[in-house]
Design goal:
Radius of gyration: 10 Å
Structural class: mainly alpha
Strand content: under 5%
Order of helices and strands: HHH
């Protein structure tokens, strides 16, 4: 996955909350083609990990 994208997501979660990020992704404010590999989530902690989970959850729901 694109680590810069995950960091950006983390910053968005920190600033606005995970639910706001999720809504923005659904509205097309974030690339839907992003695929977060769950095996790599352990490399991240805090808001970045939370953002990764939000993005992964959305991708799973959209697929």
């Amino acid at each position: 996955y694109d680590s810069e994208l995950v960091v950006l997501a983390g910053e968005m979660v920190e600033a606005e909350g995970a639910e706001v990020l999720l809504e923005k992704v659904k509205l097309g404010g974030f690339p839907l083609e992003v695929r977060i590999e769950t095996s790599k989530l352990d490399e991240h902690r805090g808001v970045v990990g939370a953002a990764s989970m939000v993005l992964h959850r959305l991708v799973v729901e959209e697929d």
